[in-house]
Known about the structure:
homodimer
Amino acid sequence: VNSDLPVVRALPLAGVGLVRQLLTDAQRRKLAAIATRVELRPRAIVYREGDPADSIFINGGGLVISFKELPSGRRRVAGFRFQADIFGLADQGRYVNSTRALTAVTLYEIPIDAMAEVLKQDAELEFQFLCKVVHEMRQAQRQILILARRDAKGRIAMFVDMLRNARPSDDPAAVDLPMNRSDIADFIDLAPESVSRACARLRQDGIMAFERRAARILDHERFDALVAAG
Amino acid sequence: VNSDLPVVRALPLAGVGLVRQLLTDAQRRKLAAIATRVELRPRAIVYREGDPADSIFINGGGLVISFKELPSGRRRVAGFRFQADIFGLADQGRYVNSTRALTAVTLYEIPIDAMAEVLKQDAELEFQFLCKVVHEMRQAQRQILILARRDAKGRIAMFVDMLRNARPSDDPAAVDLPMNRSDIADFIDLAPESVSRACARLRQDGIMAFERRAARILDHERFDALVAAG
DNA sequence: CGGACTATTGAGACTCCTCAACTAACGTGG
DNA sequence: CCACGTTAGTTGAGGAGTCTCAATAGTCCG
């Protein structure tokens, strides 16, 4: 029914910064010609679930959150869109999720019709786009693996590890957490209180430290063991 | 970090049978020329997680299960591949999941190199492929919504509803369940015992009936309410 | 500086998991 | 064709973990 993607050993499926890194100048110009640059302030809504899906978006800097309001009143966070991420999944011509800026954000908005036109004319560009989608697919699978964890500590650890891999930094022990606890909670499907408690226990165990908007891995060995324990 | 796909209102993103329905004769011939037909018996392994990802596969008939063995000894079922589904997701040149035939299966195996070559030469075909991937992506999101449910009954109902939508049948109340309880359990992340109990309660409530390899929806109103309650 | 939101901590209830026993169904070989 | 062994499925009792509700401390922003 789902997932398990098609693709392709020989391909340059670089995870991060694909749009920025793998496109030729000509391709970048082609996209720039049909894209509109949009600046958004924190908390601004990009689009709402159910809106007509006229455009796709490329994050040019900042952090965007993608989520879904459930009938129960709960909120399901589908993921976080960092620089160079593409978002705007549609189904039946309507956006599947809502998206909102968490920080100040620069977006490139590309009308879907123009995008489809360009893709049909440029197989190479379309191929890069396909790679991007496949990469998103792998992220979704990773999220599913996180949700499969029973233990709250394990979910936190896998979440941090996911961010670490998605956004490698100079210091391999330091991980930015630019979103708040509730956003994390709704992403890994825990109550905010459970996130707090799990972080507290990881701190007591000497495995990690948590600060305002960041985490630090203190004991890499036990951290990696916890991540792999799934 | 994940999901939220790019794509495209104007596109014919028909969910089922895309490969069969949306390709031109010329495109089908092109694929047939590079594909190998493979017949598998029930329980046969298609490939194992970690194997070199040399090919992608199109299910030509029968049921395939995609799964991952976790370090804890548990098993995570990524999904079920029905006729016309494409599978064979690779990361770093290795398959991400293992796949196994649940029934007798016909597969079309396409070497990745040949596939990439064909895709680069035929933007239209590549576009269909992209649509297929996007469809898989939506399935993954649906699975995540199922996993977000707290109640076992709700997960079962959503799972059945997913199968119903994926494989529409003549009788809208009847749903085939060609996989066994353990496979279902590992897909919706419950213990097999919990699946049994949830089904028993759904039966007691008069909402559904369960037979050997099928389910029947008795009270559509309450069933739909349960599915939507997420 | 004040107010609202975020984060943490505590106590009790609920649900599912684990372990175990038992029944039913299947498939294989005599 | 039947008997037996193996696997799949159901049901029960107890325990572990998170969720909910509530109260408190901390933080950010106007």
